[in-house]
Amino acid sequence: MTQPLERVRVPSAQSETMTDQHGRSINYLRLSITDRCNLRCLYCRSCEGLKMLPHDQMLSYEECLELIAVASTLNISKVRLTGGEPFIRKNFLHFLERILDAHPQLDMRLTTNATLLGGKIPALKKIGIKGLNISLDTLDRAKFQRITGRDFFLPVRGAIDQCLDYGLRIKINVVAMKGINDDELAAFIRLAENQPLDVRFIEFMPVGEKTVWRPDQVWTSREILQQAQEVVQLKPVTESGKRNGPARMFEIVGGKGRIGVISPMSSHFCGQCNRLRITPDGRLRTCLFSDKEYRLRPILRSSKLGREHLRRVIIRAGKIKPMGHEILAAQGRQGSVCRKIMSAIGG
């Protein structure tokens, strides 16, 4: 049974800080609201053998609201909604509005492929969304179709331009892959040089049981930065008191935007990891690379187990959050580091 919506609001006096066994403070939740996606990106999923979660196994919006309410009592100050593709889910804009109505202090973020953003950007601005992370691995239309399996490049580029027109902060996430998009570094740099946005290159990770990942496809952050400095002058961003998450950010001297690198393969950032992930079917994952999961959906649907039980499970799970680089090292860089594909985890 779904918990009643009336229980969504939580008194702030109940708040406590979560700290794991390594001394890391956990204050960031990534919540995947669907495993559905309208793209078939070669590094994430293909049409072969693809199975979707039955609707009754996905968390309802009310259950997601309950999770966010409980998270807010555990000093979670930042929530990112992701998928799959979150805008595929029906009434998603209304769901966003409900979250921010209940938790106006929340740092609310979204990750999207931007294919369905057309016509929704004014509403996002009105709701109070200040920025979007947009996945875009190429600036070439034909290559976009080869990577994603769909010819949606033009709507994505149009959506990015419209977001900038409305003053939304845009971070473009590029999965960096040798032999696929490493010839486009200069084009991405010029985009960030000419537009007030961030372009962040993420090292290709061995995630998913049927991943096409190979060690020789990893375009490392060091290589990207070395090549980038042959194109423009970069200045490291050192914002006192602010965090860029796992990204190392660089200003483009004389440019409007910035570039960044995220290096889970070549230079881990596990010591600063502050996040938990919840899958569309309500499974808590404390590390992207670990298949260890904690089932929250049965608690949410139980008529006997209440909010305090849910809090205790999340706290216990957070306490033993592992170091992802140790999992990578044990895996040996020869294949998948976890069974689930990225769209089923939430990235």
TrEMBL record:
Coiled coil: none annotated. Pathway: Cofactor biosynthesis; molybdopterin biosynthesis. [4Fe-4S] cluster 1 binds at C37, C41, C44. S-adenosyl-L-methionine binds at Y43, G84, S135, M205. GTP binds at R30, R80, T111, K171, R275, L276, R277. Catalyzes the cyclization of GTP to (8S)-3',8-cyclo-7,8-dihydroguanosine 5'-triphosphate. Keywords: 4Fe-4S, GTP-binding, Iron, Iron-sulfur, Lyase, Metal-binding, Molybdenum cofactor biosynthesis, Nucleotide-binding, S-adenosyl-L-methionine. It comes from Desulfonatronum thiosulfatophilum. Monomer and homodimer. Residues 21-235 form the Radical SAM core domain. Pfam families: Mob_synth_C, Radical_SAM. Belongs to the radical SAM superfamily. MoaA family. This is GTP 3',8-cyclase. Binds 2 [4Fe-4S] clusters. Binds 1 [4Fe-4S] cluster coordinated with 3 cysteines and an exchangeable S-adenosyl-L-methionine and 1 [4Fe-4S] cluster coordinated with 3 cysteines and the GTP-derived substrate. GO terms for biological process: Mo-molybdopterin cofactor biosynthetic process. Its cofactor is [4Fe-4S] cluster. [4Fe-4S] cluster 2 binds at C270, C273, C287. It catalyses: GTP + AH2 + S-adenosyl-L-methionine = (8S)-3',8-cyclo-7,8-dihydroguanosine 5'-triphosphate + 5'-deoxyadenosine + L-methionine + A + H(+). It is an enzyme of class 4 (lyase). GO terms for molecular function: 4 iron, 4 sulfur cluster binding; cyclic pyranopterin monophosphate synthase activity; GTP 3',8'-cyclase activity; GTP binding; metal ion binding; S-adenosyl-L-methionine binding. Its EC number is 4.1.99.22.
